[in-house]
Write a structure and sequence with these properties.
alpha/beta, Arc Repressor Mutant, subunit A, pyruvate-formate lyase- activating enzyme, 3-stranded antiparallel sheet, 17 helices, 19 strands, globular
């Protein structure tokens, strides 16, 4: 891919959704109830070949022992590990409510434990959780079973236990190796610790190791981040997720502890992103899309080459576009043409389950227009190409007529080199892949009608 100049990056630095779904989660409404979600589950059960259609599971573990100041996740800071046992009891109730609707034995090809800190759970608690899931679902051979890792909470023994439980993919939260940056965000973890754990994970035989990085944190500079990039290239994880820090202290209380004057300015952030992109490409990584990189033989890069890439609430995926069951406090799911989200506080989550109710408090039933636009946006985000005929046949519409205003806006992006258009459709250019969110935003009907885009993170 073409190396990017800071000037080009700066031109397209605008707020925009990440499109892990369309419509995006900020469009969910409380009018969508647990009853609506139950109907979606019932429709899945009665649908053709329901048991043959695999599921994806996401389980949110909200607990963390210490607070990372940059964090915008739904989490609970506590050192009381006995809270995990109670949470597992309620997770079991939630799973039982699902299997009462769906029946037992549905195949699962993708499982992800996120948080919070999933490794807040003890080895025995993780064993209990996985046993409960296996009693309710059929974890298919060859599936992707991943867990987010705080390097400060695991040892080689714990990694061996995770492998024995069936996890085959790990995601390490690194963010930055610089000690001053780590201190500024209250997340101190020596690079040597991460290197040792990744080496152990490879020896144990995990299929893939991902590393999360964040640029734009306090005390970062292009020079300091270049040192972190050099260390990451030496570590050579199978996948890299590179995120821009969005400083939104009015929305996320932990960020109020960050000293705003220590945050790098826009020119420094652009320089860090430009250096990151060029550095990873030079190291042989494939730019999968948006902020994800993978080694050429990693399944994510292979799926990108073969046009099999998908996208869900956890980001890019190699798994087919299947229904996603979200379990745990604040989890988001998708069943059929519906999105749902669980209660965001433990008190409400527990109370609903105590009353025998699915803990869904909001969501969205997608319209035909939503579904057609979702198909276009996901084709842009995953394949980087939209063929008019395929959308027309699937949704019985005339693409040029239905999306006339969008195609006009797309011509402007074509003039800037982000897309190429012809009579059959359009495709994202190599340079346009870096700004794929900007291309997808053209087809977001809600965004076009909404003047308040500042609630989203910036593309850069």
């Amino acid at each position: 891919m073409t190396p990017l100049s800071p000037d080009l990056l700066r031109r397209f630095d605008v707020p925009g959704p990440r499109y892990t779904s369309y419509p995006t989660a900020d469009r969910f409404v409380e009018a969508f109830s647990a009853d609506d979600y139950g109907q979606a589950l019932a429709q899945r059960k009665s649908g053709p070949a329901a048991l043959a259609q695999p599921l994806s599971l996401y389980i949110h573990i909200p607990f963390c022992e210490s607070l990372c100041y940059y964090c915008g996740c739904n989490k609970i800071i506590t050192k009381h590990h006995d809270r995990a046992a109670e949470y597992l009891r309620y997770l079991t109730r939630e799973v039982d409510l699902h299997t009462a609707q769906l029946g037992l034995g549905h195949a699962v090809t993708q499982l992800h434990l996120g948080g919070g800190t999933p490794t807040f759970l003890s080895d025995e608690e993780l064993r209990e959780l996985m046993a409960m899931l296996r009693r309710s679902f059929e974890l298919a051979p060859g599936g992707e079973y991943s867990i987010e890792i705080d390097p400060r909470t695991v040892s080689e023994k714990r990694l061996i236990n995770l492998a024995e439980l069936g996890f085959n993919r790990l995601s390490f939260g690194v963010q930055d190796f610089d000690p001053d940056v780590q201190k500024a965000v209250h997340r101190i973890q020596p690079a040597e610790q991460v290197f040792a754990l990744v080496e152990q994970a490879r020896a144990i035989g995990f299929d893939s190791v991902n590393v999360d990085l964040i640029y734009g944190l306090p005390k970062q500079s292009p020079e300091s981040f270049a040192r972190t990039l050099a260390q990451v290239k030496e570590l050579r994880p199978d996948r890299i997720a590179l995120y821009a820090y969005a400083h939104l202290p009015e929305r996320f209380k932990p960020q109020r502890r960050i000293v705003a004057s220590e945050l790098p300015g826009a020119p420094s952030k652009v320089a860090m992103l430009s250096e990151s992109l060029n550095s990873f490409l030079e190291a042989g990584y494939v730019y999968v899309g948006m902020d994800h990189f993978a080694l050429p033989n990693d399944s994510l890069a292979v799926a990108k080459r073969q046009g099999r890439l998908h996208r869900n609430f956890q980001g890019y995926s190699t798994q087919p576009d299947c229904d996603l069951i979200g379990l745990g406090v604040s989890s988001i799911g998708r069943v059929g043409a519906c999105y749902s989200q669980n209660a965001k506080t433990l008190a409400e989550y527990y109370d609903l389950l105590d009353h025998g109710q699915l803990p869904v408090v909001r969501g969205l039933a997608l319209s035909r227009d939503d579904l057609a636009r979702r198909a276009v946006i996901m084709a842009i985000m995953c394949q980087g190409q939209v063929l008019f005929e395929s959308i027309e046949l699937a949704w019985l519409l005339d693409f040029r007529e239905y999306f006339a205003s969008e195609l006009e806006a797309l011509r402007d992006l074509a003039g800037k080199g982000l897309v190429e258009m012809d009579e059959s459709g359009f495709q994202v250019t190599p340079v346009g892949w870096y700004f794929v969110r900007a291309v997808a935003m053209v087809f977001d009907r809600y965004l076009q009608a909404d003047r308040n885009r500042t609630k989203f993170s910036r593309i850069i």
